[in-house]
Design a protein that fits this description.
With 306 residues, the chain is α+β, with helices and mostly antiparallel strands. The chain has helices spanning 13-44, 61-90, 196-203, 211-221, 224-227, 259-267, 290-302; strands at residues 97-104, 107-111, 117-119, 121-125, 130-136, 141-145, 150-154, 160-164, 170-176, 189-194, 246-248, 254-256. Among the domains are: 97-203, Immunoglobulin-like; 211-302, Cytochrome c-like domain (Cytochrome Bc1 Complex, Chain D, domain 2, Orthogonal Bundle), CATH 1.10.760.10. It is built from 7 helices and 12 strands. Helix 1 (13-44) runs antiparallel to helix 2 (61-90) and helix 4 packs across helix 7. The longest helix is centred in the N-terminal third of the chain and has 32 residues, at 13-44. It binds dinuclear copper ion. Dinuclear copper ion is lined by residues 103, 106, 141, 176, 178-180, 184, 187.
C-alpha cells in the first residue's frame, strides 16, 4: 500500500485515512454511476429511423425530494465527520514532549528540551505525544510529515503548533509543503522515531564509548591500522604488547614506551623513531584533540601480544 499512500505511523494516521478512503470510494461510486447511466441512456434512447421520441414534461416530487435529501445528509455527514476529526486534533493531549522548530530558507532547525539541536532531522521517542512549537525566521513554510498525516504552516511573526504521537519506530520523510523560494524542494529532512531508551541515549550524544573503544575507532578512522597492522612486512612497528617496554631507537638511544612516548610519537613522530623503521608517519598535531590522543593511548595499552 506504500506506493499509494505512505505508511501509517502515528495515532492520528488511521483516522485521517478512514475519511480519505470513504471520500475516495464515495466519489468513485457516484462518478461510475453517472457514467454508466449516461452510456446506458445514450444507447437505449438513441435516435432510430421511424421511431418517434417524445419528451413529455415530467415532474416527480418523490424523485426531487430524494435527490435533495440524500445528498444533503451525505454532505452534512462528511462535514460533521471532518469537523469532529479536526476538533479532535486541535485538542492536544496532556503531557508529552515539547520541541521547538524554526523554519528558515531553506532548512528546519530543531531544539530539544535539554538544548540539543539538530538541522533537517528530528529525533523523537515512540508512544507519547510530541508537541512542536514552530516559528519562521523569514517566509511562510509548512511542516509536513506524511507518515503521521500532520501538516502545519510555519508563519513569520507568530507561533504555530503541531503534535503527533508516533506508533512505529523508523525513519520518515519530513517536507516543507509551502513554496518558499528557490530551494524549497531541498527543504526536506527526516524524522527518526526511536524507543524511549534509544531517544534518551541519543539526547546525551549516543552511547558513550569507553576510551579503549573510542581509541580503537580512531585507530581505524585515522588510518593508523594501515601501517601499524602487525604484519611482518609492516612499515611501522607493531603496537601489540609494546606498552611499558624499552625499545632501541634509530641512532642508538633507548626509550621506554610509556604514555608520554606514545603521545609524542603521535604528535611528533619523527622525533624518536624506532630502530629499523623510516620516519614515514605524518604528524597528527592539530588533527587530534587531547582527548583523542588519550583514547588512542588507552587503546594501544590494551593491545596484547598474540
Ligand atoms: Cu520552506 Cu518550502
Amino acid at each position: 500500500m506504500d506506493f499509494f499512500i505512505p505508511e501509517q505511523a502515528s495515532t492520528f494516521a488511521p483516522r485521517v485515512d478512514l475519511i480519505f478512503y470513504f471520500l475516495t470510494v464515495l466519489t468513485t461510486v457516484i462518478t461510475a454511476g453517472i457514467f454508466i447511466a449516461l452510456i446506458v441512456i445514450a444507447i437505449k434512447f438513441r435516435r432510430i429511423e421511424g421511431k418517434e421520441r417524445i419528451s413529455k414534461p415530467l415532474h416527480s416530487l418523490t424523485l426531487e425530494l430524494t435527490w435533495t435529501i440524500i445528498p444533503t445528509i451525505v454532505c452534512m455527514g462528511i462535514f460533521a465527520w471532518a469537523t469532529w476529526l479536526f476538533a479532535e486534533y486541535l485538542n492536544e493531549p496532556e503531557g508529552g514532549l515539547e520541541i521547538d522548530v524554526v523554519g528558515k530558507q531553506w532548512m528546519w532547525k530543531i531544539q530539544h528540551p535539554n538544548g540539543v539541536r539538530e538541522v533537517n532531522s528530528l529525533h523523537v521517542p515512540i508512544g507519547r505525544p510530541i508537541k512542536l512549537t514552530m516559528a519562521s525566521q523569514d517566509v511562510l513554510h509548512d511542516f509536513y510529515i506524511p507518515a503521521f498525516r500532520v501538516k502545519q504552516d510555519v508563519i513569520p511573526g507568530r507561533f504555530t503548533r503541531l503534535w503527533f504521537e508516533p506508533t512505529k519506530t523508523g525513519t520518515f520523510h519530513l517536507f516543507c509543503a509551502e513554496y518558499c523560494g528557490t530551494e524549497h524542494s531541498k527543504m526536506i529532512g527526516t524524522v527518526t522515531v526511536m524507543t524511549e531508551a534509544d531517544y534518551a541515549e541519543w539526547l546525551i550524544g549516543g552511547p558513550k564509548k569507553s576510551p579503549i573503544e573510542a581509541g580503537e575507532a580512531l585507530f581505524t578512522q585515522r588510518g593508523c591500522v594501515s601501517c601499524h597492522n602487525g604484519n611482518s612486512d609492516a612499515r611501522c612497528p607493531d603496537l601489540a604488547g609494546v606498552f611499558g617496554e624499552t625499545v632501541l631507537l634509530k641512532g642508538g638511544a633507548e626509550a621506554i614506551r610509556d604514555e608520554e612516548y606514545l603521545r609524542e610519537s603521535i604528535m611528533e613522530p619523527g622525533k624518536r623513531v624506532v630502530d629499523g623503521y623510516n620516519p614515514l608517519m605524518p604528524s597528527f598535531q592539530n588533527q587530534l584533540t587531547d582527548e583523542d590522543v588519550l583514547n588512542l593511548v588507552a587503546y594501544i595499552k590494551s593491545l596484547e601480544k598474540e
